[in-house]
Amino acid sequence: MWDADGALVERMDAEKDSYAVDEILLNVAGGIQPGAFRQAFKDPKDAQGLQARFLYAIPKVHKAKRVKGTTRLTEILPNLYDWLDRLPTGNLKLSDEAECLHERLIKEIGEVAESCDSEALRAWMRKLCPQILRITIAIHLLECYYDPNKDFWIVQKSTLEKASECSNYYKSAFTVIQEKVAETDSISSILLKIWDKAVTSPNGLSIRDIYRHIKAIEKEHFLWEGR
């Protein structure tokens, strides 16, 4: 489902139980509580590769407050969705300049991916190039919607550059998430966990709070006590 490829399920009773789907298009978007995420993705290796299939955003937490007034999206979204539904089917192509940039991005991202110490981050980086193309198409469609004179079938270099900038944010977000939740002995991960607990603890943070909630420090603490 991740790459919108087809699916074929064959059973003994072909007419009754077998089926084929030419294209599987699935978009999953949502949120998860930090505690639940820590429990689900604490393995720094991400052996199943599940995390690599998502783009992560870390919203800034604000205190709850009432905001007066209304927000109207009805003038934008229905027209946009209707326009998207009526789009012709076909293959978009990168311009020559965009093609050169895409080749460079593949090489650069590949080199960064293989140099990552974290297996989860390495797997995530390996899927970043197709993710950039997905973002590029989304931006391209918005550009075409607001500029009817834009060439629909050719994606320009400037659009790919915007998508690449977006990917930098997603990479930073995923790196921070991994450092916060993965149970590793990395000093950067330990320091970030301490900082995260400090800024989210309204009553302050004690030394005991640190070594009781951070596995790497807890392990070293007991080793030191044993000695």
Explain what you see:
There is one protein chain. Helices cover 54% and strands 4% of the residues. The protein is mainly alpha-helical and 227 residues long. α4 packs parallel to α7 (157-181), α6 packs across α7 (157-181) and α7 (157-181) crosses α8. Mean pLDDT is 83; it is low at 220-227.
- Indicate the radius of gyration in whole angstroms: 23 Å
* Order of neighbouring strands in the sheet with most strands: 1-2
Total strand segments:
4
Structural class: mainly alpha
| Strand-residue proportion | under 5%
**pLDDT average, as an integer?**
83
The secondary-structure element order is: EHEHHEHHHEHHHH
End-to-end distance? 52 Å
Count of separate DSSP helical elements: 10
Shape, please?
globular
How would a textbook summarize the main sheet? 2 strands, antiparallel
Helix percent band: 40-55%
Provide the low-confidence segments as ranges: 220-227
In short:
The protein is mainly alpha-helical and 227 residues long. The protein is built from ten helices and four strands, in the order βαβααβαααβαααα.
Q: Which helices and strands occur, and which strands form pairs?
A:
Elements: E1 7-9, H1 14-17, E2 19-21, H2 34-40, H3 77-85, E3 93-94, H4 96-114, H5 119-126, H6 128-146, E4 154-155, H7 157-181, H8 187-199, H9 207-213, H10 215-226
Parallel strand pairs: 3-4
Antiparallel strand pairs: 1-2
Helix pairs in contact: 4-5, 4-7, 5-7, 6-7, 7-8, 9-10
